[in-house]
């Protein structure tokens, strides 16, 4: 029986992904900064582990209690929407610490066990902002695009050891708590000169033609984790699929 470790399972994509892997018979290590066991199925195959991907000691502790894993799903992330001019560099660094360096740190910590067994997969969850440029998301886009390049290169160097690397690119999911865990209000990142520009952008967010469901992302992660071809990109959600086809 295979084991998957998923980061960022307290809500959204991570939570749904943990449920799907469990339903499909895997052992699941569902990690989150503040553990909550009540939101996941009670089962011997489901474990909730505390993990902060920006803390090296937390990463080491989580992997020690998790034991051998066959798949790592780097899902934990934070968002930011706003004018780049109004986004402090300290906040930009905070975004990168989780979305970019956290993913890299988790991957680097897990690679040795996958390489030594000559099997396994790393699935990195990015975003459809990497498929087409979108306004008011410059810092977030940069943090996710870095992981696109990182994963593409990683796939080449791990293939020699029988280890796979994949990308899942979710579209826009109104139900997710995007940017709510950053400590900065969206209103503070839209200064007056940008108000007129931002208004139609937020109106489009409020009534999107196509959206991504949390189940779309979970299913894409499942397919990516079990794919043995050299396919790298797995867009998730109707809007992401449309962007991928158009790009």
Automatic annotation (TrEMBL):
InterPro entries: NAD(P)-bd_dom_sf, Sc_DH/Rdtase_CS, SDR_fam, SDR_oxidoreductase. It holds the Pfam family adh_short. Keywords: Oxidoreductase. It comes from Ensifer adhaerens (Sinorhizobium morelense). Belongs to the short-chain dehydrogenases/reductases (SDR) family. PANTHER family: SHORT CHAIN DEHYDROGENASE, SHORT-CHAIN DEHYDROGENASE_REDUCTASE FAMILY PROTEIN. CDD domains: 17beta-HSD-like_SDR_c (cd05374). GO terms for molecular function: oxidoreductase activity. This is Dehydrogenase.
């Amino acid at each position: 029986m295979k084991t998957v470790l998923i980061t960022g399972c307290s809500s959204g994509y991570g939570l749904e992904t943990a449920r799907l892997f469990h339903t499909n018979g895997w052992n699941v290590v569902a990690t989150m900064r503040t553990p909550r066991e009540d939101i996941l199925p009670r089962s011997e195959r489901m474990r909730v582990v505390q993990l902060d991907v920006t803390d090296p000691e937390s990463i080491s502790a989580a992997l020690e209690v998790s034991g051998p894993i066959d798949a790592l799903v780097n899902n934990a992330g934070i968002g930011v929407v706003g004018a780049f001019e109004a986004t402090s560099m300290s906040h930009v660094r905070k975004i990168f610490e989780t979305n970019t360096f956290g993913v890299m740190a988790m991957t680097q910590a897990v690679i040795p066990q996958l390489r030594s067994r000559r099997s396994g997969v790393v699935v990195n969850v990015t975003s459809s902002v990497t498929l087409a440029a979108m306004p008011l998301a410059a810092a977030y886009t940069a943090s996710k695009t870095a992981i696109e390049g990182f994963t593409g290169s990683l796939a080449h160097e791990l293939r020699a050891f029988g280890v796979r690397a994949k990308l899942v690119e979710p579209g826009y999911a109104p139900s997710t708590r995007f940017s709510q865990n950053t400590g900065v209000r969206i209103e503070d990142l839209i200064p007056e000169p940008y108000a007129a520009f931002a208004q139609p952008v937020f109106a489009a967010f409020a009534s999107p033609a196509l959206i991504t469901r949390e189940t779309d992302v979970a299913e894409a992660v499942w397919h990516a984790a079990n794919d043995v071809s050299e396919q790298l990109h797995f867009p998730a959600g109707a809007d992401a699929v449309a962007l991928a086809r158009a790009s």
